[in-house]
Description:
- By secondary structure, the chain is an alpha/beta fold.
- The protein has 15 helices and 13 strands.
- The strands form two sheets. It has a seven-stranded parallel β-sheet, sandwiched between helices. A six-stranded parallel β-sheet has the order 10-9-8-11-12-13, with helices on both faces.
- Strand 8, helix 10 and strand 9 form a beta-alpha-beta unit.
- Helix 3 runs parallel beside helix 4 and helix 10 packs parallel to helix 11.
- It is globular and about 60 Å long.
- The relative contact order is 0.11.
Amino acid sequence: MLLHLFYAPPYNLNVLIIESFADMEDFASLPQLFILYGSLDEKHKAIYEKTSRCNNVNIIYLDDFISLLKFVKKHKSDTFLLHGNLPYKVMTFLSLYSRRVDWICWGAKASINYSNIKSILLTPFKRVVYKRFYKIITLMNPDTDSLIRDFHVKNVEQISYYRPSSEREFDLFRKLAHIRSSQVCEYKKRQILLGNSAHNISCYLDILSSLSDFKESIDVHCMMQYPKLSESVVKEFVDQANSNFNGSITIDKEMMEHHRYYKYLCDFDVYMCSNLNQSGLGAATICLKLGLKVFLAGKNYEWLSSLGYKIFNINDIKGIGDVDVFNDLSEDEKEYNLNLAFKIMHANRNKWMNYRKTLV
């Protein structure tokens, strides 16, 4: 049996991944169990329950480490597939106790943070744990490189998540991109979206300072759908944002199912993310498929540009002062990005099928 283990709170991401593995060819025929570790409120648990019913999958909830220990002891011979940023104590225990553990790295634990003494001191410990994993899967090659360089692991392969339902949405994206293009001229100001979550609020403040030169010509929205922040933190951010930008800023908090999310993104001309580490690859890729102009930084920029996408570096907006930097992509560039996204998606499908063969 394949046991998928997630840290429960980022439900919006987890639900999409659960749906993907439930729908993916060959995986659907494999006995799978989806495990959510950590406490949940009733609202978010209800979302997981709906996912379970609609996709005919089994989901169990383990609220704390003790319940996880008891569960693992009953499934020692099964394969665990860890998704994302689970606590180190969970990763360590599973690496020592279970027959086979694979880890899909979301980037946060892929390198040494030399400005953080804790990260430096934990490096020898991480090397031992990471080397015990049967396989580590990364979502981008820069994370593959840093895992090999910093932690001396060899069991690493790059495979991006793959959603079978998305591969069937080519015509939908082309239609939405056409609708979006026809709406561009309807706004007097350029519509700018800062992404992809409240994890990036410090990055938002930095971008807003750079965008202040354009404040008369743009409206800015900040994605704050997750994680949920206290009202005091949101207020502090809004106060700082207004100080940095002093223009039109909207905070977007509403979570949406994916078709509404596509339409939400269609309202924008430009998507920006200045996080230097892996963050919001899914959001950036959807924006590229919809024809938005995308500005990125760091690993995100390096990775998506290496794949061939027509994207831009966030530094391109600094010190220019010319709003034309936000002009729409040409129709040929939009079509190129859309076709490339689906070509890459198909390649990832084949990689997952090859991974599936190792689970026999």
